[in-house]
Write a structure and sequence with these properties.
By secondary structure, the protein is of the alpha+beta class. It is 49% helix and 22% strand.
Length: 381
């Protein structure tokens, strides 16, 4: 290890090459982790969502007003002073420019009813006020407010032929609702000519154990053609496509860059073996076997890789963890805002990948060092 200082240039190139690979890999994969964390954080054990049978997302669903009333009467739904904790909701998409690029993005506009905030325990109004029921007023999620232009309180958004003022902002503990704009469903329906129809019903159950009774009641009712799901199941299915796509892309990028880093490590370790030819031969002449020689070369490669992995993981954590962005939810074709999540598991994966690069880059030079003829090596200058 003390001889590393004699090869500062090649050692530094290998170290920072590996660091770059790890930083990029962790950074890209933290997008998928952030999306999954946002989706998982939206789910509550007692909550369920009801869609039309056969629909995989709210965009593909449709429920008549009479259907939503029957759903609200199902057993197992919690109640408060205003009645059943069931919120029939309308989900549409409008275009708004992104702050960072100015390009238009599909932003979800959700029409809700009075029990929507009671169904979602995470809802918290953080600025301004709640919209007035029956008026063309909206409140916006903090994630949407941060990522999309024109959503400041006091501004207005164009919906159809009208301008709807923004009167408040809300948070949802980092959940997907923070990507949305909320309005009274009764106002949104005529604006998009939806009549008395909705796309989903969000409900809060008496307990997680009440779900089976609730589901069986709906699926056995001949008046209904619906698909109840636990919130956790629904959001897991919503995040699966984008999670797999980003994870696959990130892994592909890491592998391609990793191949380059392996060649850099090979070059470094071949240089190390070349500069230590007589030293290795002397050890062999003194009675050392091939195994200690191989371990010596591999140890140097792995230490450089480990240091590069630590640097890359640290840079990724500093640069990306908590960074907010928006991406397309391929299930609903609408934007979702999220924060990059550089967690401990992801950092460990990055360091393990760095060690694999170091192992691949040091193995062949180590074998070459162990196999070189002693007599020939001792004559090297």
């Amino acid at each position: 290890m003390r001889s590393v200082s004699q090869r500062k240039g090649s050692s530094a190139a290998a170290l920072f090459g590996i660091a770059g690979v790890v930083a990029v890999m962790v950074g890209v994969l933290s997008i998928a982790q952030g999306v999954r964390k946002t989706m998982d954080g939206s789910a509550v054990d007692e909550n369920a969502i009801v869609l039309r049978s056969g629909a995989d997302s709210e965009m593909m669903s449709g429920l008549a007003g009479d259907d939503t009333r029957i759903i609200a009467e199902a057993p197992g739904i919690a109640r408060n002073g205003d009645g059943a904790l069931a919120s029939p909701e309308l989900f549409v998409i409008i275009n708004l420019p992104m702050r960072s690029t100015g390009t238009d993005a599909n932003v979800p506009l959700r029409g809700v009813q009075g029990q929507a905030t009671a169904v979602r325990d995470s809802f918290q109004l953080v600025a301004g006020r709640m919209f007035e029921w029956g008026l063309n007023e909206v409140i916006v999620g903090t994630g949407a407010q941060e990522e999309f232009a024109g959503l400041e309180i006091g501004s207005s958004i164009e919906v159809g032929q009208d301008n709807w003022p923004v009167v408040g902002a809300f948070s949802a503990r980092g959940g997907i609702a923070e990507s949305e704009i909320w309005v009274d469903a009764a106002v949104l329906q005529p604006a998009f000519r939806r009549g008395n129809s909705f796309q989903s019903v969000a409900v809060k159950l008496e307990s997680p154990q009440a779900y089976d009774e609730f589901k069986n009641s709906l699926t056995s009712d001949p008046r209904l053609n619906v698909k109840p799901q636990r919130e956790a199941e629904y959001y897991a299915s919503q995040s699966r496509t984008v999670y797999n796509m980003i994870t696959g892309l990130g892994t592909l990028i890491a592998v391609i860059m990793g191949l380059g880093a392996v060649f850099g490590a090979l070059n470094t370790m071949y240089t190390a073996v070349s500069s230590r030819t007589r030293e290795i031969a002397t050890l062999r002449a003194l009675g050392f076997h091939s195994t200690p020689v191989i371990i010596s070369v591999l140890s140097e490669s792995l230490v450089l890789a480990f240091a590069g992995g630590l640097i890359g993981a640290g840079l990724a954590w500093l640069a990306f963890d908590g960074f907010r962005a928006a991406t397309l939810n391929w299930s609903s074709f609408s934007a979702i805002t999220f924060a990059f999540d550089v967690n401990a598991d992801l950092l460990a994966q990055g360091i393990i990948f760095a060690l694999l690069i170091g192992l691949a880059g040091g193995l062949f030079p180590a074998i070459r060092a162990a196999r070189q003829p002693v007599a020939q090596a001792l004559r090297e200058l």
